[in-house]
Design a protein that fits this description.
Shape: globular
Strand content: 5-15%
Helix content: 40-55%
Length: about 1100
C-alpha cells in the first residue's frame, strides 16, 4: 500500500505527559456511532492519565455543564452531529460563562459533519478545539487526545476560594472548588478551621456510606434512593460523593457513577466523583473534610459511595452515621459470608438483583449470617436489616423498604428530620413480577444453536442416504444390463434399508424435483390460487437476443448433492428460504425504499412525492429528527432548537403526522410506510394509525356528506387495521446495545412493544410489522458484520420468547416481526440475508413449531453510513453502489441507498436523486439483476454462508452463557464487544493498515481548496412554525389532555395495555407530554458504561 503520509503522521504524534491531575467530562449530544466514538475517546483519555466522568449519549448542554462545574473538570469533550451542533456548542460556552466557569475548556468533533466555516465560527466563539477528519488524518487518535490534554492541563489548586461565603450560600461551583482544594491538600489552614467550625453545629446531618461488591448495582441503588427521598421526603438537599479507584499504572480513572444517575438533575442535588489517586484505601484521605464541606454548604443528607470491593474492606464505616452494604445473590458458598467484613459493621444490607436465580436462598443465608455476627439469637433472621431489592425495576418495593429503613435508622440515631409521605410498605423484599424472559427459558439461544446444528447433521445424513440409494440403484441397473443381475437380493435389501431411513420430507423433495424443473422450464410459471391462474414470466431477454432465466436451477445429477442443496438452499420461496422468502420479486415494485426526513412535515411530504413520482408503489420511509427520536417536543432552548427538523423531520402531534402523509392513501396496497423512530415507537405507531383512520373518515365524509355513525366508525377502523402496510423500527434491545434512542426503562419499553403486538393480534393488523429488529444501528455503533447479525437475530429470538411469555401464539406475532441490516464492505455482508433467513426458518420450524408464514424472515437493507467519508465524498457513491449490488443479489426485501453527502449533511434533493439512481440502474440496466438468484451455486458464497452461520451460532452460545440477551446486556457484553470492534476499525483506519481510498490512501496529489458542500438544514421559519403549531395543538386540547394523561399513567401503573390508551392519547396530547407522563409511570432509561 502506498504511504501517503497518514501512517507516518499517526505514529509520530507527540504524546503529552500531564503535569497535573486532569479531569474531563465526556458525552455525546446524540447517539449510536457518536456514543461509540466518545467511548473510544474517553478510554484513550483514561489510559493517558485523565480522570474521566463519562455521561453517555443524548446529554443536554445543561447536564454537561452542570456535571463539569460540579466535578470541577478542566475540560469537556463532546461528540456532536449534523443539525444543531453549532447551537449546541455555543450554548455550552454561554452557559459556562453565565455560571462563572468560562475557564473550563470545550472540545468537540462530529466526524466531518461540522464543516470548516462552522469550525472557524465555533473557535472564534470560544470553543477550544473542534477536531476535523483532517486532524484525525494528521494527528491520529492518540494525537488528538494528547492535544486535548495539553490544552486542558492546569493546576486546579490555583485560584481556590478565599472564604466560605459562596459555600454557605450553597453555590455548587464554590463547593466543587473547595473539594478540589481538599483533594489536593491545598486548602489554606484558616479555611480548614472555618470549615470545621461551620460544621460543629451540624452533627445531626446524616451521612450514609454505601459500599459493596463490584457490579452489585450500587450506583443504580443510590439513584433510586435519591429518587425516593425526593418523592416522599419533600425534596431535601442531598450531596453525593462517589469514589472510584485510580489505575496505578496509568494514573487515569473512570469515574463511572454519574452516568447511572437519573434523579440528580435538580438544583437541590449535588454530585461529585472522586478518584482514589495515591490512596491505598477505597476512601480518599480527604473524605472527612469533604463531608464537612457538604454539611457546611447546607445539605440535609450526605451520601458517600465507595468503589466496588471484594469481601474485606470496611473503611467507610468510621466516616458515616449509617452504612449500607450492597451485594448480589452470587456470593458463592455460604462460608464466603463469614469473610465479608462489612456484614459485621453494616447497619443495613441490601441484596440487589433479586430476580436472579437462587436469590431467596441467598437472602435467607445472609440474614442468618448477620444474625450470627450480631449474636442476635433472640430475634428471628427475618428481623435482621437485610433487604432484597431490584434497583433496575421501576418503583421497586424492595428499594422503597430500604429507603424507609434508612429513615428509621436516622430517627433512632437522632439524625435529620425527614418526613415520609407514604405508609410503611410492610415488606423487606421486592415483589416478584413477570420476567420478560422466564428464568427457565434463558437457554433459548443455546437451543436455537442446537436446532440449527442438528438440522445440518440431518442434511448430511439424509444426503448420504440419498446418494447411496441412487448408487445402489445404478449398481443394480448396471449389473442387470451386464447380464449379472440374476440375484440382486442383497442390493435390494440395502436399497430398502436406505429407502426406510430417508425421511418423508427427503422422499418428497427428490420425487417432486422433476416436476419443479419442468415448471421452471417454460416461458411462464403458472400457479392456481382459489381457481385463479397467476402467471409469472420466467425469461428475460438481453440485447444480444439471449434469454436469462429469472430463477436459475442447479444441474445436479447426484441425488446426494441435489438433496443437500434442496435442504440447505432450495429455490427462492421454499424452505429454508436461504435464497429468499418469495418465489419471485413482485413485478412493478422494486425493493427501493428511500428515506426522507427534513425540516417540517410539509417539506418532507414534498420530498416523499419527489421520490415516489417514478414508481406506482409508494414506499414512504421516514427519518425523524433527534428531538422527536427522544420523545420531546420542539422548544426554543438552544440545544433543542438547533436540532428541530435537522437530520430528520420534526413530528410532535397528530396534526404533523397528517401533513407528513398527506396525498398518500395509507390503506392502498401499493403504499407502505416505514418509521425509524425507536424509543417513542408506540406513540408514532398510534399517530400513524389515527392518521390512516382519519384519512378514511375524510373519504367517508366526502362520499356521504355526513359524519359516520358509531358502527360505521368501527368498520372504518377495522378496514384500516386490515390494510395498512409497513413497519415501525422499535427494537429497544439494540437501543441499549448500540446506545441509540433509549428513553424508557428496558422492562417498560419491552412491555409497551408487547402491548402493540397484542393490539395487532386483537385487531387483525397482519400487514404491518410491529417491530423492525435492527442491526443497522449496531453496525453504525461499530460492530463488525458477525456481531451485527448475531446480536440482531438474538434480539429477534428474545422478542419471540418475551411474547410467548405474555401468552401469545407464535403464528399470531412472528409474521409481524421484521429485520433491518446494514451492508458494508466486508465479505461477510454478501451473505447476511442468506444466513439470517436460514437460521430463522430452521428455528421457527423445528424449535417453535411455527407455520410457513412465520418461518419467512423479511428484512430491509441500508447501505453503510459508517463507510460514508467526509474526504473525497464523491467516492462514497462507489461504495454505496457495491453495497446495493450485493444486497440486491442477496434478495433483500427492501433497500435504502445512502446519499454520498450524508457524511456531512442531511442529503440534498440532488444527492438523493443520485442515490436513487444507483438502485434504478441496478434494477433496470444491470444485466445480471434480471436473474433473481445469482448468488446460488457460487463456491465462495456457499463457503461464506456456512462460515458466517457458524460464527453467528458461536456468538449465540456466548450470549446464552451470560443468561441470554438480557443477561448479557446487564453485564454490558454487547456494548463492550461493539466498542472493541469499533476501536479496532478506527485504529486500523488511522494507522493506514485498513485502506480506505481517498481517506488514508490514494489521496488526491492536488487537493482542491476545501469546498463546503450544500448543507441541508431546517429554516428558521420551519422551526418557528413547528413550535407555534405545537402550542396551538396543546391549547386546543388542553381540557382533554390532563384527564387523558392521568388515564394513561393509571393504565401503565396497573399493567393494562398502554398502546390501546395511546390510540386515544395522541389525539389530544403531544409527543413530549406523553413521554413525560410515561416516565412517571414506567421509568426512564438508565444509561450505562
Amino acid at each position: 500500500m502506498p504511504d501517503d503520509g497518514i501512517t507516518r503522521h499517526a505514529k509520530n504524534s507527540k504524546l503529552y505527559e500531564p503535569k497535573f491531575p486532569i479531569r474531563f467530562v465526556t458525552a455525546a449530544s446524540l447517539f449510536d456511532g457518536h456514543d461509540a466514538s466518545i467511548n473510544i475517546m474517553r478510554r484513550i483519555l483514561q489510559s493517558a492519565g485523565a480522570e474521566v466522568i463519562h455521561l453517555g449519549h443524548n446529554r443536554s448542554v445543561d447536564e454537561v455543564v452542570t456535571a463539569a462545574i460540579q466535578e470541577d473538570a478542566q475540560g469537556i469533550a463532546v461528540s456532536s452531529y449534523q443539525g444543531g451542533h453549532v447551537e449546541y456548542f455555543k450554548y455550552m460556552v454561554d452557559l459556562l460563562t453565565e455560571r462563572g466557569r468560562p475557564d473550563i475548556k470545550v472540545f468537540g468533533g462530529g466526524g466531518g459533519v461540522i464543516v470548516a466555516p462552522e469550525i472557524k465560527d465555533l473557535h472564534d466563539y470560544g470553543i477550544s478545539r473542534i477536531y476535523s477528519p483532517h486532524d484525525g488524518q494528521s494527528m491520529g487518535l492518540p494525537g488528538m487526545i494528547h492535544d486535548m490534554l495539553e490544552r486542558a492541563d492546569r493546576d486546579l489548586g490555583e485560584g481556590l476560594p478565599t472564604d466560605l461565603a459562596g459555600l454557605e450560600a450553597s453555590d455548587h461551583a464554590v463547593l466543587a472548588r473547595i473539594i478540589s482544594g481538599l483533594e489536593l491538600g491545598r486548602l489554606p489552614d484558616n479555611l480548614l478551621d472555618a470549615l470545621r467550625a461551620a460544621t460543629e453545629a451540624k452533627t445531626d446531618v446524616p451521612v450514609v456510606g454505601i459500599t459493596g461488591t463490584g457490579g452489585a448495582g450500587k450506583s443504580s441503588l443510590t439513584d433510586e434512593l435519591i429518587r425516593r427521598f425526593r418523592l416522599y421526603s419533600d425534596e431535601p438537599k442531598i450531596a453525593v460523593i462517589a469514589v472510584d479507584p485510580t489505575r496505578r499504572k496509568t494514573k487515569g480513572a473512570l469515574l463511572g457513577d454519574r452516568i447511572r444517575m437519573n434523579a440528580i438533575n435538580p438544583e437541590n442535588i449535588y454530585m461529585r466523583s472522586l478518584a482514589t489517586r495515591a490512596s491505598q484505601s477505597e476512601v480518599p484521605p480527604a473524605t472527612p473534610e469533604i463531608i464537612a464541606a457538604c454539611k457546611a454548604a447546607g445539605f440535609d443528607l450526605v451520601i458517600v459511595e465507595t468503589p466496588g470491593i471484594g469481601q474485606g474492606d470496611a473503611a467507610i464505616v468510621e466516616h458515616v452515621n449509617v452504612s449500607l452494604y450492597v451485594m448480589t445473590p452470587e456470593f458463592g458458598a455460604q462460608s464466603q459470608l463469614e469473610k465479608i467484613d462489612m456484614l459485621d459493621f453494616a447497619d443495613i444490607v441490601a441484596i440487589n438483583k433479586l430476580d436472579r436465580k437462587g436469590a431467596l436462598d441467598a437472602l435467607r443465608d445472609v440474614r442468618k449470617q448477620v444474625q450470627r455476627n450480631r449474636e442476635a439469637f433472640d430475634l428471628s433472621p427475618d428481623d435482621m436489616p437485610v433487604f432484597g431489592c431490584m434497583a433496575s425495576k421501576f418503583a421497586d418495593i424492595g428499594v422503597t423498604a430500604l429507603y424507609q429503613e434508612m429513615l428509621n435508622q436516622f430517627s433512632k440515631k437522632g439524625l435529620g428530620s425527614f418526613t415520609c409521605s407514604i405508609d410503611p410498605v410492610g415488606s423487606k423484599l421486592s415483589e416478584p413480577g413477570q420476567a420478560i424472559v422466564p428464568p427457565e427459558r434463558v437457554r433459548y439461544l443455546a437451543e436455537v444453536t442446537e436446532t440449527v446444528r442438528d438440522y445440518h447433521k440431518t442434511i448430511a445424513e439424509q444426503s448420504r442416504l440419498a446418494r447411496e440409494r441412487q448408487q445402489l440403484n445404478e449398481t443394480k441397473r448396471m449389473l442387470v444390463e451386464a447380464g449379472q443381475g440374476a440375484d440382486t437380493s442383497d442390493i435390494d435389501t440395502l436399497i430398502t434399508k436406505r429407502e426406510d431411513e430417508l425421511d418423508p420430507r427427503s422422499h418428497k423433495l427428490l420425487e417432486s424435483w422433476p416436476t419443479v424443473v419442468e415448471s421452471y422450464s417454460g416461458d411462464e410459471f403458472v400457479v392456481k390460487i382459489r381457481d385463479k391462474e397467476i402467471r409469472t414470466a420466467l425469461k428475460r431477454d438481453t440485447l444480444s437476443g439471449n434469454t436469462v432465466p429469472r430463477v436459475a436451477l442447479p444441474q445436479y445429477e447426484d441425488h446426494g448433492e441435489l438433496l443437500k442443496w434442496l435442504l440447505k438452499e432450495n429455490l427462492p420461496g421454499s424452505f429454508p428460504y436461504t435464497a429468499g422468502v418469495f418465489a419471485f420479486k413482485r413485478d412493478g415494485e422494486e425493493p427501493t425504499r428511500m428515506f426522507a426526513g427534513e425540516g417540517d412535515a410539509f417539506r418532507t411530504n414534498a420530498r416523499f412525492k419527489m421520490l415516489s413520482q417514478h414508481s406506482d408503489a409508494k414506499r414512504l420511509s421516514t427519518a425523524f429528527d433527534s428531538v422527536t427520536l427522544y420523545g420531546f417536543d420542539p422548544h426554543e432552548r438552544p440545544d433543542i432548537y438547533g436540532k428541530v427538523g435537522n437530520s430528520g423531520v420534526s413530528i410532535a402531534t397528530l396534526d404533523d403526522m397528517k401533513v407528513l402523509y398527506d396525498g398518500f392513501d395509507l390503506c392502498d396496497p401499493t403504499t407502505s410506510v416505514s418509521m425509524t423512530i425507536n424509543g417513542p415507537a408506540p406513540m408514532a405507531m398510534a399517530l400513524f394509525l389515527n392518521t390512516a383512520i382519519d384519512q378514511q373518515v375524510d373519504k367517508f365524509r366526502a362520499d356521504n356528506g355526513r359524519e359516520p355513525l358509531e358502527e360505521e366508525m368501527e368498520k372504518i377502523a377495522e378496514c384500516v387495521h386490515t390494510n395498512v402496510r409497513g413497519t415501525v423500527q422499535a427494537d429497544i434491545l439494540k437501543e441499549d446495545q448500540g446506545q441509540n434512542t433509549c428513553i424508557f426503562s428496558t422492562e417498560f419499553a419491552l412491555r409497551m412493544m408487547a402491548d402493540i403486538q397484542e393490539y395487532f393480534v386483537r385487531h387483525r393488523v397482519r400487514n404491518f410489522y410491529s417491530v423492525s429488529i435492527s442491526g443497522y444501528h449496531i453496525a453504525e455503533a461499530g460492530a463488525n458484520p458477525i456481531s451485527q447479525l448475531a446480536f440482531t437475530l438474538s434480539n429477534g429470538f428474545t422478542f419471540v420468547e418475551a411474547y410467548l411469555a405474555r401468552g401469545m401464539h407464535i403464528d399470531d406475532f412472528a409474521p409481524n416481526l421484521s429485520f433491518f441490516f446494514s451492508n458494508g464492505m466486508d465479505p461477510e455482508y454478501t451473505v447476511m440475508g442468506r444466513v439470517a433467513r436460514r437460521i430463522w426458518a430452521c428455528a421457527m420450524r423445528f424449535k417453535y413449531g411455527a407455520n410457513q408464514r412465520s418461518q419467512k424472515l423479511k428484512y430491509h437493507t441500508q447501505t453503510s453510513g459508517r463507510s460514508l467519508h467526509a474526504q473525497e465524498m464523491d467516492f462514497n457513491d462507489i461504495r454505496t453502489t457495491l453495497q446495493a449490488l450485493i444486497a440486491t443479489y442477496d434478495n433483500t426485501n427492501s433497500l435504502h441507498t445512502n446519499a454520498f453527502d450524508e457524511a456531512v449533511t442531511t442529503p440534498t434533493a440532488n444527492s438523493v436523486r443520485r442515490a436513487l439512481a444507483i438502485q434504478m440502474i441496478i434494477n433496470q440496466e444491470w444485466g445480471l439483476a434480471k436473474n433473481e438468484n445469482p448468488n446460488q451455486g457460487a463456491f465462495i458464497i456457499d463457503e461464506l454462508t456456512d462460515l458466517v452461520e457458524e460464527a453467528v451460532l458461536q456468538e449465540f452460545e456466548r450470549i446464552a452463557e451470560r443468561g441470554g440477551v438480557l443477561g448479557a446486556m446487564e453485564t454490558g457484553y454487547q456494548r463492550g464487544k461493539i466498542q472493541e470492534e469499533s476501536l479496532h476499525y478506527e485504529t486500523l483506519k488511522h494507522t493506514g493498515e485498513y485502506p480506505i481510498i481517498g481517506v488514508n490512501t490514494f489521496l488526491n496529489p492536488e487537493p482542491e481548496d476545501e469546498v463546503v458542500p450544500e448543507l441541508q438544514r431546517s429554516t428558521e421559519d420551519e422551526k418557528q412554525s413547528q413550535i407555534n403549531r405545537l402550542r396551538e395543538f396543546q391549547a386546543r386540547n388542553e381540557a382533554a389532555c390532563v384527564p387523558t394523561l392521568a388515564r394513561l399513567k393509571q393504565v401503565a401503573t396497573d399493567g393494562g395495555n398502554v398502546f390501546a390508551v395511546l390510540m386515544d392519547a395522541v389525539r389530544v396530547c403531544s409527543l413530549g407530554q406523553i413521554t413525560h407522563a410515561l416516565f412517571d409511570a414506567g421509568g426512564q432509561y438508565r444509561r450505562n458504561m
